[in-house]
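User: Can you predict the 3D structure of N-carbamoyl-L-amino-acid hydrolase? Sequence below.
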Amino acid sequence: MMKLDDLNNTGTADFVALLDGTYEHSPWIAERAAPLRPFKTLAALKVALARAVREATMDEQLGLIRAHPELAGKAAVAGELTAESTNEQLRAGLTACTPKEFAKLQKLNADYNARFGWPFILAVRGPRGSGFTRQEIIATFERRLRAHPDVERAECLRQIHRIAEIRLNDKFGVKPALGEQLWDWAAALAGHSEDETFLTCTYATPTHTTVAGQLMAWMRDCGFDEVGRDAVGNVVGIYRGSSDKRLLTGSHYDTVRRAGRFDGRLGIFVAMLAVRELHRAGRRLAFGLEVVGFSEEEGQRFPADFLGSSTLVGAFDPAWLGQTDAAGTTLRDAMQAAGLPGTMDAISALARDPGRYLGFVEVHIEQGPVLDSLDLPLGIVTSINGSRRYTGEIVGLASHAGTTPMGQRRDAAAGVAELILFAEQRAAAVPDVVATVGMLEVPAGSINVIPGRCRFSLDLRATTDAARDALDADVLAKLEEICERRGLSYTLQPTLAANAAPSDAAWQSRWEAAVGELGLPIHRLPSGAGHDAMKIHELLLQAMLFVRGGNGGISHNPLESVTTDDAQLAIDAFRQLIENLNV
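Assistant: Sure. Here are the predicted structure tokens for N-carbamoyl-L-amino-acid hydrolase:
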């Protein structure tokens, strides 16, 4: 097996030769990475090689893509693939296609090449490393055939990096065992769903209770000293230390509808595996670890969200117990049906004493494209965005599309369209500020009628409350100005106001040190999504670590993905953090 010292202590020509086959017919990648030695870790080498590709010219990148063979293509049939590609296609079963599957792949290859001008690239051993099925390969092929060329070119390069990562693991004899365990837990837990086709786990349903029970069983297997489900359904595991102080960590186990496997749950699994390794080694830290699987964060069944983490900070609103779901079931009744007390006395007793805790840390999939676009597995969160949300309606005058002159129209949809463009331009003018109109509706619209009403939503976010409030003021002022100028009226209903949650400087530095110990570049980024950490922020110092998501960083979607290698690095970073924590 190859060793990192072999690469660090040899000349450039030998360095390139040792890495032959990592990237298909492209020795220039290793040549450009060689000056970045010495590499502290294998992960550092992988990042350096990916950086060489990212900084290459467009022609060089396209040349790399075109150096790869088609899946089950002519070169495979003729036995002309490299040894690495032959092995990968063999393991994926592409050499054992049925005639129908082979014909399908040949048609897809031809259509793909005609559309993009390069071969379809897929790391057939997949995010788990154990391989996609032929059916999964064909489904991915069909989906990506519809992508925009710029998006698809970037995805091909990311798939090439994943192929190289797996090949390097083989060369070095490395197996991301903890990452594989995390991935397998995520897959097993996703087997419990309210929907037969897509993962859905909403608060206080039978599926939700089953998931909680499975998490508790795994926590006991990991060696936690205390495991239980509290009065709002949080799953709590405690691994005692040599002092009464504790570090609080975890994330949520409920999901959106049609969810991915890793949102929230990844952060629970990372901490569970850290405890498991401590227990197996018979070790205790100077502080205890309290791992919480928060029961609700997504707000999918009831209007209130962050039920689990709000409880811990003493912010559970008694009025929430009377809220109803779409079926008319109250939150109180749903809790009691799930075996929870559903009383404020039981809920209030769960508020934590901040004096007992060192802080709160959360590991979470990024849910965005930044780390994926930079070829970085981990990123350090600087702040969780503050947000304001609204639902609104602009009212004009419905009139005939053919007979009403352009200068005499009161078009409600055109007014909203102008607002959308302003919000987009205003947000784009300031770093780390975003604005979105995610819902748009013309009630009873008709192709030949000027819209008299248009309903819309507004989602305004920024890393600081000041930046959020400035955006909010400007967008609302523009709404007023648009309606006055166009002869329209409007209503606007606030639905959410959440303050930003900047990371604590000391805890952020600890995450940075942990990531640095893995030989990885330090990349800081804000979180545009809300997380349990933003509620715990009201009680404790907090900081988050992001893990790269695959498929362009998509989340809240069945395509949400994390590789076992990235999961391993997240676990390693968490273990570095707790091992280096002095109390």
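Residues 387-498 form a domain with the Alpha-Beta Plaits fold (CATH 3.30.70.360). The chain is about 45% helix and 15% strand.
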